[in-house]
Amino acid sequence: MTRWTVVSLLGLIGVGCSVEPAPDTDRQPPVMPEGAWTLADNQPNTEDGLRVLIIHDMEGLSGQDDPSSFDFGTDTYPRGQELLAADINAVVDGLFAGGATEVLIADGHGSGNPDPDLRTDLLDPRATQIFREEPYDTYFDLPESEPGIDAVAVVGMHAKTGSGGFASHTFTLGIDFLINGQAITETELVALSWGRVGVPVIFASGDDRLAADLETLPWVEYVTVKTATAADGADLRPADEARADLTAAAQRAVEGFASAKVTVVNTPVFASLHAVPPASLRFLDGIPGVAYENDTFTFVVDDMRAAYDGLVEVVGLATVGYLGVLQETVGAHAAADEIFGAYGEALTGRWFDQESGRYERPEPGAGVGGTPQRFHGYR
Known about the structure:
Layout: H1 4-13, E1 37-41, E2 51-56, H2 77-98, E3 102-107, E4 127-129, H3 142-145, E5 151-155, E6 175-179, E7 182-183, H4 186-195, E8 201-207, H5 208-213, E9 221-230, E10 233-236, H6 239-255, E11 261-265, E12 269-275, E13 292-293, E14 296-301, H7 304-318, H8 322-331, H9 336-355
Parallel strand pairs: 2-3, 2-5, 3-4, 5-8, 8-9
Antiparallel strand pairs: 1-11, 6-7, 6-12, 9-10, 12-14, 13-14
Helix pairs in contact: 1-7, 2-6
């Protein structure tokens, strides 16, 4: 998942984060669990078939070593779409060969494309993309709205922030999620989300750094499609060879589905957001009652959904740090004085309009762009 366009806008307009009231002085402070999660046995019920959900990202594809290929609007993005379809079709083939009776697909990327990153015309017709009339969160809304899912496969994923993988990050640029003190990947985030309803993640693909990150989920059938050399470079395996492995591993994942584990978060949940450049939370330093230390903000909640929702809100705060890059970019521009002058006038004008009762505050999300008729996941 990247979602840089949407999240950057959230950072610019400012997103609030609800704060729990201060605890009673007589109450003992919560204690962090010893582990991030507990592994539970899978208890499958497949009398009506075996339905597998594929959630895809776009940074961990075979044949891909150019970061622009997952960024909507670039010259190489159409090629990235072809690589995405090829990897997913290889996995779909393996899932059905292993015994899956239905395969659904949800977009977990955030290229900014109003249409699906995964082109329907290139997709194996046996698989079905999830489209909705209303927006939905790919990682956390589907366990409730798709109650018949038996297992989850993730395709084209990336390593977590700080792992040194190809395009490694968590959620978006400069963001690192920690659950009960453990930094997690988006794949583990998916596992924790579906663990709430007893559904395991059984398959994953990406680079070698993600393979190392996912030693926490040893039952997952994992395919390394490339070796990261930097955040913007990778040594590629032959694509046909990698896709053959995708098919074989997906088949094994379904065949061994019953022995997969379910990932259940330990409670209370200590959720933390560690911000690194270009994101920043340094403006929280020194605020009374805020648990902020070493560029990390932490809060405690009762369940994983509340942890995720809170972290998403804090992402909106942390991406305010992107403004520093914007200021540097504009400052180097030939028209910097003119641009900053116009900004100052607009800022003052907004203040005058607000104080004079002339300003009408837009609804949340207004002005972000046109609304498509159907939603396919992250935009």
